């Protein structure tokens, strides 16, 4: 049994990455973000960059550089109208920072996907007779989902305007869970 597991891990080794390697990409089903509002967007969606301390700016620049290097973001200019607010830096207790976008306003105008997600009870019942259960966390899982061209959203920060090429982390606006469930259901 151990040998079979090791063989499978080596067979699919390209599915695994660390934060220093390139991300995988789910290209077969580009993520679409559909809004129920037309351009020009309401002022609620067009906001200036948040003020940030020098420490927060430095941390933000590190995160932005990493996301540009991974192909999640790209620089697009300085004077464009934007429809998504700037990211916010949240510092953890251990001193590490992470970049989180503020998408509350955009989520207000999102058209939700109503595809059903399985209930946790049903999933646990299906797994109840399993001999082994393995859980793996997808490193930067949101960022593995490529956005369709019409769904790419801009953000404004102190050093310019950037465009998401992949799904922003923690954004609920694209109904990503429903889209992934639909993909699982129709690909088997």
TrEMBL record:
Name of the protein in question: Reverse transcriptase domain-containing protein
Annotated InterPro entries: DNA/RNA_pol_sf, Rev_trsase/Diguanyl_cyclase, RNA-dir_DNA_polymerase
Signal peptide coordinates: none
Coiled coil: none
Database matches in PANTHER family: RNA-DIRECTED DNA POLYMERASE HOMOLOG, TRANSPOSON TY3-I GAG-POL POLYPROTEIN
Top-level division of the source organism's lineage: Eukaryota
SUPFAM superfamilies, A to Z: DNA/RNA polymerases (SSF56672)
